[in-house]
Specification:
With 91 residues, the chain is mostly helical. It has one domain. The protein contains two helices and two strands; from the N terminus they run ββαα. Strands 1-2 form a two-stranded antiparallel ribbon. Helix 1 (27-60) packs antiparallel against helix 2 (65-90). The protein is rod-shaped and about 65 Å long. The mean pLDDT is 88. Bound molecules: zinc ion (ZN). Zinc ion binds next to loops.
């Protein structure tokens, strides 16, 4: 358990507290929203990288079918992982 400063009144409050006991600022709720936003960004980035890897794989098909197919497979798996991960953390 750690103490954090209430952003509203600067009182030291437990980070497990749902709200500041003095001014009622919603501390736990605020932290949860931030975590969800950060997680969402991470998975969106993963989906984007997966997309680029898959596109790179499409171009690589001209040079090497094996390399191209491998890159497409990795890219598609990353896109799915990003989509499923983002969905999982939001529900
Ligand atoms: Zn407060």
């Amino acid at each position: 358990m750690a103490l954090i400063k209430c952003p509203e009144c600067q009182l030291e409050v437990s980070d497990k507290a749902a709200a500041c006991p003095k001014c009622g600022y919603p501390i736990a709720v605020d932290k949860k929203v931030q975590t969800i936003e950060q997680t969402g960004k991470k998975y969106k980035g993963m989906t984007l990288i997966g997309f680029f890897v898959a596109v790179l794989g499409l171009f690589s098909l001209n040079f090497s079918i094996d390399l191209g197919l491998s890159l497409i497979l990795v890219g598609v798996v990353m896109m799915f992982a990003g989509k499923i991960g983002g969905w999982w953390h939001h529900s």
